[in-house]
Amino acid sequence: MSDAYRPHEAMVAPARRTASLVRLVLGGVMLSVLFLSTIFAASALLNLVLPGAPLDDTAAALANGGTPYGVLANLYIFGFIILALAITGRAVHDRSLPSFVGDWRRARQHFGRVCLYMVGLHLALSILLPATPDLTPEANLAPSSWLAFLPLALPAILVQTGAEELVFRGYLQSQLAARFANPRIWIIVPAILFGLLHYDPAINGDATWLIVGWATLFGIAAADLTARTGTIGAALGLHFVNNFFAILVAAPAGNFDGLALYTYPFALGDTDALWVWAPLDLMLLLVSWLTARLSLRV
Question: Fewer CB within 10 Å of terminal CB in the chain, N or C?
Answer without folding.
Answer: N
